[in-house]
Amino acid sequence: MGYTLQLPTEDRFLMTKTELENKIAVLLGGRIAEELTFGEASTGAQNDLVKATDIAKSMIKSYGMSDKLGTVTLDRERQPLFMQIQAPQEKGDYSEETAREIDCEVRRIIDEQFERVNGCWRNEKAALLEGAKKLLDEEVISGSDLKAIMDKH
User: Fold this and answer.
1) Which residues contact 42 (CB under 8 A, 6 or more apart)?
2) What are 51-63's pLDDT values in tens digits?
3) What is this structure's pTM?
4) Which of 53, 70, 86, 103 is most buried, by the most CB atoms less than 10 A from its CB?
């Protein structure tokens, strides 16, 4: 079991589409490394998968970052339950067809980042194995240690 801590480089309220995609890629890295190394997945990446999916959903539903669905928001602003006039709608204010398109776009984003990271790990398997050995020996790997390993390979 482990986790990846991504430190912010600065205090920010805005993120670009590329930055969000990169966050998803990092979240998928552990699952992909596990599949590549052991030939199968475990339950260890569950939290990362939830976070990656949430980011992808926000990209589509809240931030209008879908070429297919356009520059619209499909996620109503959330209000505390006691202030809601209407009963909460879990599916949003859109049709079943739009819900299906949202699901497809979320899947596309996740799949694209999965393939991107999978290709990186396959090309850098020696670095992956060296990093894993360092983690087994020391339990922690710093950004500078990781950079040194990647530069070496």
Assistant:
1) 34
2) 999 999 999 999 9
3) 0.78
4) 53
